[in-house]
Sequence to fold (287 residues):
Amino acid sequence: MATTATASNQSRTAASQAGTILRQWRGSRGKTQLDLSFDSGISQKHISFVESGRSTPSRQTLLDLAQALEIPLREQNTLLLAAGYAPVHSQDPLEAPAMTSITKALKRMLRQHEPFPAIVMDRHWNVLMTNDASPRFFSCFIDMNARQQPRNLLHLMFDPAGMRPFIANWKTTARSLLARVHREALGGVIDAGTRSLLDELAKYPEVAPEWRSPSAELVLPMVPLSFRKGGVTLNYFSMITTVGTPQTVVAEELRLECMFPADERTEAIHAQFMAENADRGSGAIQH
Fold:
């Protein structure tokens, strides 16, 4: 009897934890239980019971609700674990055999973007891969070999010992980058890792607290990045590529960022600038 009661209590606790997570995601999506019922095909009453912990949902019910709420795959695994189920979405690293086709595609795209910088990052802006142009470009400004690993693109842009002194209109750019962090947060929600990154960036000099609350006018069609050195200004913008219909956690979180010249002058002098400033070496920015 004691064992049965303990198991029952554990089941209720798991159901309660899963229900709390679902309720938080529903709130972040601005949906009522009726909205979620319509989107998922699950009755409003059952959703209410799941959220309150009065009902133990099946794995499929949780997955159906998670899909209706557009919960990222990593957080879906967390939801399943909270309910006492094993995760269903693989977390194979980028170098795993199962990721070979994606890795090859990324390398091909990186090569094809030469001679302009292209970088593969995870959800927290940590650099995973680059093309040859990326380390050569950033090494035109600073000694990349002096920077600790793992390398993080946002720290590189915010650090006064990094690229910050070479970014024209740095405050405008930095504020736009923070707005982009919020805009591109996976699942539209700032997770703990992203919140920690924002806290770290806020510690750099002259980063205003109000930058953490991006305003609507900062939602631009592109984030301009202008780099200046020796009287030369180079203007770029970024385009982001993600994996379509990802089936694994890592695949969903990958982002390939490609820098393009924002004007004809930058396109014309990019290669010359790289050649004239190649004396700093080619300290890699990837892991």
Q: What stands out?
A: The beta strands are 118-121, 127-130, 225-229, 232-241, 255-261. The CA atoms of residues 117 and 133 lie 5 Å apart. The chain has a mean pLDDT of 89.
